[in-house]
Amino acid sequence: MNVNNIHPNLSGLEQLQAMLANGNGAPIGETLKFRLVEIDDGHAVFEAEPGPHAYNPIGSIHGGFAATLLDSACGCAVHSKLRADQIYTTLELKTAYHRGMTAETGTVRAIGSVVTMGRRTAFAEARLVDGNDRLLASATSTLLVMDRQS
Question: Cα–Cα–Cα angle for 80, 145, 30, nearest 5°?
């Protein structure tokens, strides 16, 4: 499901609010078992339950799971600032891993916010925390903002 095609005449924030209200999400959320739980202007929060579906060969949650959550939080924070005629893509994601995760970690939250929003470039950051607000991973992101092609 491409949220940009669901409500093409709505702002990015309105698109994400509609998606959240309808309980919809992107297919990657179904695959990795994460969901958007909060959206506001320049702010996005995702929740997930780390589990065996995201394990790596050494018996812990794969770093790509955390990176995907952080990328989603940064991206949707920026998406919430877009006009109806704009789209975006991630140019760079720098991720730092602070604490490992396992299936016993419990629910985690990726909290993203826009740092600066330019005409063509946006900068965002996100933190991945556990239920005790311990930092598991963090990221900074650079995103390209483009006009939607009709």
Answer: 55
Secondary structure of 51-105 as H, E, C letters: CHHHECCCCCECHHHHHHHHHHHHHHHHHCCCCCCEEEEEEEEEEEECCCCCHHH
Residue 36 three-state SS: strand
Q: What is the pTM of this model?
A: 0.93
Q: What is the DSSP letter of 147?
A: E
Mean pLDDT over 120-126 rounds to 98
Which pLDDT belongs to residue 149? 83
Rounded distance between C-alpha atoms, residue 3 and residue 9, angstroms:
11
Q: What are phi and psi of 85, to 5 degrees?
A: -95, 15
